[in-house]
Design brief:
The chain is of the alpha/beta class and 665 residues long. It has 23 helices and 10 strands. The strands form 2 sheets. A 7-stranded mixed beta sheet has the order 3-2-1-4-8-6-9, sandwiched between helices. A 3-stranded mixed beta sheet has the order 5-10-7.
C-alpha cells in the first residue's frame, strides 16, 4: 500500500516565503480538498505460475464441460478479470474488432512469408562449413531479425495507406469535433515532475494554460503540478513559479501544486497518489510530461472523444517532437515528421482499440484506471524485479483487460513533446526504457491480458533484445567469412546473387519508409512547411545519413544495457545536465572511446586475416570509430541553427507563424 499523504505547502517545507504569500490568494492550501479513495494493486501471479495454471486449465477443461464457467473462468473471476466487458457496458463485438482480427492475420502472414522465404534463400546460398551448428545459428538469427525488419516495413506501408485513404475503423479526431461538452465532464490536467529545470517546465505548462484559456471552456479543467523533487532548492523554485503562474491566470484557470514527501513508485506512484487524493472529483485526467505542450483545442477534442466513446479507457495522441535546436534533436524532430507518422498511423491500423499508451500526452478515464491499473511490484531480486519502470504499456494492458478500449488517435494535432538534445541523453533515457521493457516481459503470461497487449509487451522487450542479436549476427558472419574452413568467400566476386539480393531487400525495407514519407507529404501538398520540395529531399538525405551513422552506436549501447539488466551488473551511464548546450569531447570520449578502440581492434584483425571481410565490418565499424566526433558535433546548437537558417531539417513547428511558437510566446 502506498503510504503517501497530503502535504500542505509552507515556508518551512520549501525554505521560501513565496508559498505562504501565494496561499493567501486562495484560502486554504495549494490544492483542493482531499476526497481520498482507494487504488489498490493486485499481486501479479507470475510467469511460471500463470503458465502452469493455463496448462492445467487446458488439460482439465474437457472434464469441466457442463460446469458453469469452467476452471479458466473461475480463475479469472477470482482475480476480478471478466472477458469482454468487465465494468464497461456490454455490447456486441463492434466492426472494428472484426477488422482488427483480419488485419492482424494479414500482418502475420506477410511477416511469416517474407521471413520464411528470406531465411530459406539464405540457407540455400550459404556455403557449408565444418561448424554446422554456427551456420544454423546464423540462419536462425537472420530469420528472426528479418521478421522484425519486415514487421516494421509493413507497418509503415499500412501507415502510408492510412495517410492516403484514411481508415473508417480508426478513432479519428474529426468524429466528435462539434460535440458539446457537458459540465459533468470535469477533467484534471496533471504534470508529474521530478527535479526538472523549472523554467522549461513552467514555460510549457504556461503555454498549455494560455491556449486552454482561449477556448472558453477552462472552467471544466483543473491543472495540477505534481512534484516528486527531492532537492529543496528546486522545490522552492517550483513553488515560486507555481505561485506566479496561478497569479497570472487568476480565476480563469485553477492551478494547483502538490509535493510528495514519500516519493514511492516513481512517476506511476506520483499519478496514483493524485488519484487517491482527488481522482473521485474528475471523470478524466490528461497526463503531461515535464516537456509536454498541448493546445487548448487538442485538450477539448480529447474530452469530446471520450464523451462520444464511453468504452474508451485511454486515448493516446501522437505527440510531435519540437522545441530544441541541436543537430541531434532537429534530426529526430524531422524524422518523426517524415517517417515517424507513417509508423504511428500503421500501428493504429493494426491495433485499433487495443493500442499503446505512452505515459503522457493522453487522456484517461479515471474511475476504471483507479480500479484496475494500480501496479504491484514484481517479486524477486535483481534488475527485472521490484517497481515496474515502464508502467504505461502495463497500464494499457490492464485497462483493456478490464473491458475498456485503448486508442491511438494519430490525426489529433496540437500535442507536442521534446526529444533528448543529444545522443548521450537519448541513450540515458533508453537505458531506463530497456530495463523497463525487459521487466515487462515477465508479465506476458498474466491471465486475462488481450493477445495484442501480450504482443506489445513482447515487442517492447525485443526492441532492445534485437540489439545484441544484430551484433551477434554481424560478428558471426564476419567470423564465418574469416575463419570458415574453407573461408566463406575468397573474394567479393564469389558472393552468391541470393545473398546480394537479401542484402538489398533488407536495406530497402529499412530505407523505404523515408522516401515513402516524403511522397506522403508531397501528395498532401505539405512540402512548403518543410522548406519546399528541394529542402525536404535534402533534409531526408541528411537525416538518413545521420541515422545510418548513429545506428551502430545505439546497437552497441543497447547491447550493454541488455547485458546489465539481465545480469544485474552496474553500468554508469549518465549524460551531462540537460541545461548544457553542447557535449564536451571528454564526455563523449569517456562514453565511446573504449567502444571505438574495440571496433578498431576487431576491424584491424579482420583486415589482416581476410581483407574481404571489410564488407561486413565497415558498415558497423566505421560509425563506431566516429562515435566520439559524431556525438560532439550533433550536440551543437550552433550547427543546428545554421541548418535551420538554410531551411534544412525544417519542420512545420519551426515556421515563425506556427501555432507552437504562438503558444510559447
Amino acid at each position: 500500500m502506498d503510504h503517501d499523504h497530503p502535504i500542505r505547502l509552507n515556508a518551512t517545507a520549501l525554505a521560501t516565503g513565496l508559498v505562504t504569500r501565494a496561499r493567501r490568494a486562495v484560502p486554504g492550501a495549494s490544492a483542493p480538498p482531499i476526497h481520498r479513495a482507494s487504488m489498490a494493486a493486485r499481486p501479479w501471479r507470475g510467469f511460471a505460475r500463470s503458465i502452469g495454471d493455463a496448462t492445467l486449465a487446458a488439460l482439465l477443461r474437457p472434464r469441466a464441460r457442463g460446469v458453469a464457467g469452467g476452471i479458466g473462468d473461475a480463475a479469472r473471476a477470482r482475480q476480478g478479470v471478466r472477458r469482454g466487458g468487465a465494468d464497461a457496458p456490454a455490447a456486441a463485438e463492434p466492426a472494428w474488432q472484426r477488422a482488427a482480427s483480419r488485419r492482424r492475420a494479414v500482418l502475420l502472414v506477410l511477416v511469416a512469408l517474407s521471413a520464411g522465404g528470406a531465411t530459406a534463400l539464405l540457407a540455400h546460398a550459404l556455403p557449408s562449413h565444418h561448424s554446422g551448428s554456427l551456420r544454423l545459428v546464423q540462419i536462425g538469427l537472420f530469420g528472426l531479425l528479418f521478421a522484425w525488419v519486415s514487421a516494421g516495413f509493413f507497418t509503415a506501408m499500412m501507415g502510408f495507406r492510412v495517410l492516403w485513404r484514411g481508415d473508417r475503423h480508426a478513432m479519428s479526431a474529426a468524429s466528435a469535433r462539434d460535440r458539446p461538452i457537458g459540465e459533468h465532464a470535469r477533467t484534471a490536467i496533471i504534470m508529474p515532475i521530478c527535479n526538472e529545470q523549472v523554467s522549461a517546465v513552467l514555460a510549457g505548462l504556461r503555454a498549455t494554460c494560455r491556449s486552454l484559456a482561449t477556448t472558453g471552456a477552462a472552467r471544466l479543467f483543473d491543472v495540477f503540478l505534481l512534484s516528486d523533487s527531492g532537492d529543496p532548492a528546486i522545490r522552492a523554485a517550483e513553488a515560486a513559479a507555481w505561485a506566479q503562474l496561478r497569479d497570472e491566470f487568476g480565476a480563469d484557470i485553477r492551478i494547483y501544486y502538490r509535493w510528495r514527501r514519500r516519493r514511492t513508485k516513481r512517476k506511476a506512484g506520483n499519478v496514483a497518489d493524485f488519484c487517491r487524493r482527488w481522482g473521485r472529483d474528475y471523470r478524466y485526467m490528461i497526463v503531461l510530461d515535464a516537456d509536454s505542450v498541448m493546445s487548448g483545442e487538442c485538450v477539448l477534442q480529447l474530452v469530446r472523444l471520450m464523451e462520444a466513446n464511453p468504452r474508451a479507457g485511454i486515448l493516446q495522441t501522437a505527440p510531435l517532437a519540437c522545441g530544441l535546436t541541436t543537430l541531434h534533436a532537429r534530426s529526430q524532430q524531422f524524422a518523426g515528421r517524415v517517417a515517424g507518422r507513417l509508423f504511428t498511423a500503421g500501428m493504429q491500423y493494426w491495433q485499433l482499440g487495443e493500442s499503446h499508451y505512452w505515459g503522457h500526452n493522453a487522456i484517461i478515464r479515471v474511475e476504471p484506471f483507479m480500479r484496475h491499473c494500480a501496479l504491484a511490484p514484481l517479486a524477486g531480486h535483481g534488475g527485472l524485479s521490484g517497481e515496474i519502470l515502464s508502467h504505461d504499456f502495463v497500464e494499457a494492458a490492464l485497462m483493456r483487460r478490464a473491458g475498456y478500449h485503448v486508442w491511438l488517435v494519430h490525426d489529433l494535432y496540437g500535442s507536442y513533446e521534446q526529444q533528448p538534445p543529444n545522443l548521450l541523453e537519448e541513450l540515458q533515457r533508453d537505458r531506463r526504457w530497456c530495463q523497463g521493457n525487459l521487466q515487462n516481459a515477465r508479465l506476458l503470461a498474466e491471465p486475462g491480458l488481450h493477445g495484442v497487449h501480450r504482443a506489445m509487451l513482447l515487442t517492447g522487450a525485443f526492441s532492445y533484445l534485437s540489439a545484441p542479436l544484430w551484433l551477434a549476427f554481424v560478428l558471426l558472419g564476419a567470423c564465418l567469412w574469416v575463419f570458415g574452413n574453407p573461408p566463406a568467400f575468397a573474394s567479393l566476386r564469389d558472393v552468391p546473387r541470393e545473398l546480394a539480393a537479401l542484402w538489398l531487400a533488407t536495406t530497402l525495407m529499412l530505407a523505404l519508409p523515408r522516401p515513402i514519407g516524403v511522397l506522403a507529404i508531397v501528395m498532401r501538398r505539405e512540402q512548403g512547411s518543410y522548406g519546399g520540395t528541394s529542402a525536404l529531399l535534402r533534409g531526408t538525405l541528411l537525416e538518413g545519413g545521420l541515422s545510418v551513422l548513429q545506428a551502430p552506436v545505439r546497437m552497441v549501447a543497447h547491447t550493454l544495457f541488455v547485458v546489465a539488466a539481465l545480469t544485474g551488473l552496474k553500468l554508469d551511464w549518465r549524460s551531462p545536465s540537460r541545461e548544457a548546450e553542447d557535449i564536451g569531447w571528454s564526455d563523449a570520449a569517456r562514453r565511446f572511446g573504449l567502444i571505438g578502440a574495440a571496433a578498431a581492434c576487431v576491424a584491424g584483425c579482420g583486415l589482416l586475416l581476410q581483407p574481404q571481410a571489410i564488407v561486413l565490418l565497415l558498415p558497423t565499424g566505421l560509425p563506431l570509430l566516429l562515435a566520439v566526433p559524431l556525438t560532439v558535433l550533433t550536440s551543437r546548437s550552433t550547427l543546428g541553427r545554421r541548418l535551420l537558417a538554410s531551411r534544412l531539417l525544417l519542420t512545420p513547428e519551426e515556421q515563425p507563424a506556427s501555432g507552437l511558437f504562438k503558444l510559447m510566446g
